[in-house]
Specification:
Neutral Protease, domain 2; alpha/beta; 11% strand; single chain; Rossmann fold; eight-stranded mixed β-sheet
């Protein structure tokens, strides 16, 4: 089976696996929610055309009210909003308009507290207590950057939810009144709202806003941006456009951003259960790790008996904020609940299991290139799990002020010299010497950056069917040693012949 077809089968298996877990832990939707969601499902059953990041940013700049869908447990949903806000902020200021940010996680009665926290009059912990954020049951760290953005740029922040939660329809009507109030109060307002995606069906919140604006005799353009609807993702998969298409236009003034795979959304919800101390029989991270290991192994064509039943999966809290797999201890150290990190560690666990590699990064001259490959396989495995994951490219390295990225760019420039000047590869970018702790950490960070970049490029070769599954299996069975350097340069030349590393992280949302 060719690599791309195997990848598609792997994705379907992952989706089915997480769906089974979701049904087990979450159960079925309540009847009223099923009824309310039918309008949403009908509306997102098809799309008109594929469009691009710059187009949707132009649409945002041409609108006065922007409604963006939120999947509360998925940090990607909130990060996408943050990226859009950062992109449009200077344009809004240049046009002498005022940006407002409305959040469903805030009630109208929280507006005073929102003003206080954005003016640094109260602390974050005081703010969270005052708004009773715990009632949501989701991770505050998903939303904290949005509040920090509002504080940093003096963006007025207001709540979209009523003091007492009623029916979904009554919440639509209430949010419409709040949005229309600010639109009427400030003719130069650009109101950006983050609301649960089901509310954004045209006959739900958008219709209520239109009715409210008509009552107030105010005319505003309303733009609706959905996020990551599963059926649209699978339609693109069928057309082999899932890795190129990121923005779809569904109708006039209605778009959908697709930058998260369906099973990633599901897993984020399962993780939110694990993080909620009030939920019994919570979802174990080792269960997720085993699903990820089995998914990557299936893609590679590795038999189950080669990886075992996961009884030796050892997950511990990281002594610092980093998430990493210790090859010498065979331990997952988790710094934060992040599926991309867990997928990377699961891929490195699989490499350790298949190859017996047990190295420790101690000497950059000896360990740098083996560690580049460790990071390559880690990132490649995480891309198999989450094909929408992004990393920095050569363009980002070139313009970066970060010391590790600048060093990575110098290393890449050196790579390009070899075929032109006939230089010997062992001309030692990392000379033999006694390294300080800071230098050791720097060299390991550079290995991480170069490994992610090569892993991204190799994933693109999978999509193009330019790499064989048997070769990938052999890589995962390699205990990297002195040959790692020549193998790295060989593969850099191969991926660069397809220009697969010369891109920017900022090209996508």
């Amino acid at each position: 089976m060719v690599a791309r077809n195997r990848l598609l089968n792997c994705q379907k298996r992952l989706s089915q696996s997480f769906r089974r877990s979701a049904r087990m832990y979450l159960g079925d939707l309540p009847t009223h929610l099923k009824t309310y969601s039918l309008e949403y499902y009908r509306e997102l059953s098809s799309y008109k055309k594929i469009t691009f990041k710059n187009n949707i940013l132009d649409e945002v700049m041409g609108s006065q009210i922007i409604l963006c869908g939120d999947y509360h447990s998925s940090s990607q949903a909130q990060r996408t909003v943050l990226r859009i806000l950062r992109e449009i902020l200077q344009g809004i200021k240049k046009e002498r308009k005022t940006l407002y940010l409305g959040l469903e996680i805030l009630r109208a009665q929280d507006n005073i507290r929102a003003q206080q926290v954005t003016h640094s009059e109260i602390s974050e912990s005081q703010f969270l207590d005052a708004i009773a954020f715990h009632r949501w049951g989701f991770n505050w760290q998903n939303y904290a950057p949005l509040v920090e953005f509002a504080r940093q740029w003096k963006v007025p922040l207001f709540g979209l939810s009523p003091d007492r939660m009623g029916s979904l329809e009554s919440r639509d009507a209430f949010a419409a009144r709040m949005i229309s109030h600010w639109a009427q109060q400030d003719p130069n307002a650009v109101i950006f709202c983050l609301m649960g995606d089901l509310h954004l069906a045209q006959n739900h919140l958008p219709r209520e806003i239109k009715l409210e604006l008509e009552t107030r005799q105010v005319s505003k353009r309303i733009l609706t941006i959905h996020q990551n609807y599963d059926d649209l993702y699978w339609k693109l998969v069928q057309k082999k456009r899932d890795h190129q298409a990121e923005v779809l236009q569904l109708d006039k003034d209605v778009f959908c951003i697709l930058n998260t795979a369906p099973w990633i959304k599901l897993q984020s919800h399962l993780s939110s259960i694990e993080e909620n101390p009030g939920v019994e029989d919570s979802f174990e991270p080792s269960d997720t790790a085993l699903q990820l290991i089995e998914g990557i192994a299936y893609f590679l064509g590795v038999r189950k008996k080669e990886i075992g039943n996961g009884a030796d999966i050892d997950i511990r809290e990281s002594p610092d904020s980093r998430s990493y797999f210790s090859y010498s201890e065979k331990v997952f150290y988790i710094g934060s609940a992040n599926l991309n990190h867990l997928a990377k560690l699961s891929s490195q666990y699989l490499h350790s299991k298949l190859s017996g590699f047990g190295g420790v990064f101690e000497d950059p001259q000896r360990d740098f290139y083996p560690w580049v490959w460790v990071e390559t396989l880690g990132y490649l495995g995480s891309k198999i799990i989450n094909p929408k994951r992004k990393c920095q490219g050569i363009i980002d390295f070139k313009s970066a002020s970060d010391p590790a990225m600048k060093t990575a760019y110098r290393h890449i420039k050196r790579e390009f010299l070899f075929p032109r000047r006939g230089l010997k590869q062992s001309s030692h970018f990392w000379p033999r010497k006694k390294y300080t702790v800071q230098e050791l950490m720097m060299s390991q960070q550079v290995a991480l950056l170069l490994g992610k970049l090569l892993g991204q490029a190799m994933f693109e070769l999978i999509l193009k069917n330019k790499i064989s599954l048997s070769f990938l299996r052999d890589l995962f069975k390699t205990a990297f040693g002195p040959e790692a350097e020549s193998l790295y340069f060989e593969w850099c030349q191969r991926v660069d012949s397809h220009s697969l590393r010369n891109f920017s992280y900022r090209e996508k949302l």
